[in-house]
Structures are given as structure tokens and as C-alpha cells.
Amino acid sequence: MEPDIKQNCIHPQYELATLGDKESHATVQPSKSITNSDPSSDVCQAEKLRVAKIFSRLGWKRLTVVLITEAIALGSLSIPGSFATLGMLGGVISSVGIGLIATYASYEVGAVKLKYPDVEHYGDIGRLILGEKGFWIVTVAFIFQLLLSVGSHCLTGIIALASVTQSDVCTVVFGLVSALILLLLAIPPTFADIAILGYIDVASIFTAIGITVVATGVQSTRDNNGSPASDWSVWPKENVSFSTAMVAINNIVFAYSFAPAIPSFMNEMHIPKDYTKAIYTLGVIEIVIYTLIGSLVYLFVGQEVQSPALLSAGPLMSRIAFGVALPVVFISGSLNTSLIARYIHAQNR
């Protein structure tokens, strides 16, 4: 009879060293010594190797796709509205500046993961800084950020389904449908598997952005010189309040908020140090895409630009753009669902 691997294969639990430890080279040590004298230990080792192989299939190219899936989604559709508040100059500076900061911050998060390999999720970094208190502070922020992001995707799913179907169905029904789709797409067990859906997501968001930019450009009014005659401005909107300006800036920050997911993704990389290639690739793509869609749509539409920007493309083109964007609405949201589930699983092993 084959031994029961679940009963005999016992994994040690670990305690993370903190940055305040006297030994600067402190490493993660087992919290308790666990021995296994059972003859099935060889079987256990083989099982561990098999599982490790399954969860170590993520290369830097697929990581780039997963990061694009995580990052370039709903945030990009709110950028033109931020430009309308901050003005063309303020919008470009904010988009590029925040993008550079986000890229550098993500690099540093990955560097911490490399130095402390047993940091499995973003909350573990809080433990390194402030011990158990820091763990809970960062963990709560991490989970709330993901939950609110999933909720945002669900809301956008409601708007998209209502726009595409032009139906009188209660929005609660669309909300339930969106939640169910987000749940089903979160089923793939590894991020390498999710990357396959990520290719569809990438094609979806880039196509939707392209449709929005082209449609708003074609529909924009022109002056005698053929230039867009919208009421766009280099400077911020007149009499803009501090709170309104901060909301606009926070929308741009939200669009770049992918750093908390990096430790979770790096757990599945077969060459973790290659994460820098994915980070730099994503950083360049995000800065270019966000700056272009923000400036061009604002240039074509002016102060009346809507959020999400797909609504500014006109009734027919908005329906088409939302239809094309449905995969990104649900695939990106389901990735955040997977991150939450993966974190909960790690805490209960």
C-alpha cells in the first residue's frame, strides 16, 4: 500500500528574522525542529520536488505578462480624467514621475525578496521592519488594497455588461455575474497558468485603449488648422480644490500599484533574480501607455472626458470598446482574487 504522503510529509514552519537583529546576516530559521524517521521520507522528498517543479515554472517573460495583467487594467482608463484635472503639463509630469518611482520601488521590493527568500508575501516585509506589529499593519493594507481592487473590477464589469447589452436587467444581476466570472477565472493554481490568460488580457487592454484613442480622435472637433479644438489646457483646471487634485494623483498612483504582488509572483520563478527584466519592461510599457492615453484622449475630448475613458468614445464605440475590454476587466480582477487566496493558503499551512 502506498504511504499517505499528507500524513508523513511534514513541512517545517519558519520565523522571519527582522532588520533589527544584531546579526546583519540573519537568515530565516525554522521555528521548531521537525524530524521524520518514517521510511516514507524518500517518498516525501520526491513529492516535494514534484510540487516544487510545478510551482517553479514562471520565467521573466511570463512574469512580465502577469505583471501587465496585474497593473495595466482599470487604472489606465482613469488617466485621461486625471489629466483633465491636473492639466497637460501636470498630468505628464505625474504620469512619468510616479511611473519612475513605482518602478524603483518595485525593484526594491524584489531585492528584499531575493535577500530573504522566505518572504512569501508582501506582509512578510512588514515583519522584517517592525516585527509582528509591522506584519499585521502591512498585511491589512495588502489585503484591503486587493479586495478594493477586485471590487473595482466587479463594478467596472457591471458598467461594461450594462453598456454592451443595453439591457434593463437589474445591476445586481450584472454584479452577481461579474463576481462569479471573477471567481471562476481565479481557479488556475499557478501564476504560470494564469499567464496564459494574461496573453488574452494584454491583447484585450491594448486593443481597447487603441479603439478609445482612435475613436475620440476621429470624433473630436477641429479648428481651421486641423488641430483638435477641445478645451484642453496645459495648466490645471481653474479653481481646482486640493482634494480633487489629490484624487486625480491617486488615480495615477493606483494605476501603478503592482509592487505588493511582486513577492507572491517571485515565489514561482525558477530564476528569481530575473525579476528585474520584467520590472523594467513593465515600467517602460506603463509609462508610455499611461502618458499617451492620458494626453491624447484629454487632447481630443478636453475637460468633458469621462472616467473610465471608454465612455468618451461615443455610444457605439463605447459599446465596442467595452466588449473588447471585457477580458481585461475579469482576468485582471481574478488575478487579485488569486493573490488573496494564495496569501490565506500560505498562512494556514
TrEMBL record:
Amino acid transporter transmembrane domain boundaries: 58-343
Coiled coil spans: none
Topology relative to the membrane: Multi-pass membrane protein
Compartments it resides in: Membrane
PANTHER family attached to this UniProt entry: AMINO ACID TRANSPORTER, AMINO ACID TRANSPORTER (EUROFUNG)-RELATED
Family membership: Belongs to the amino acid/polyamine transporter 2 family.
Designated name of the protein: Amino acid transporter transmembrane domain-containing protein
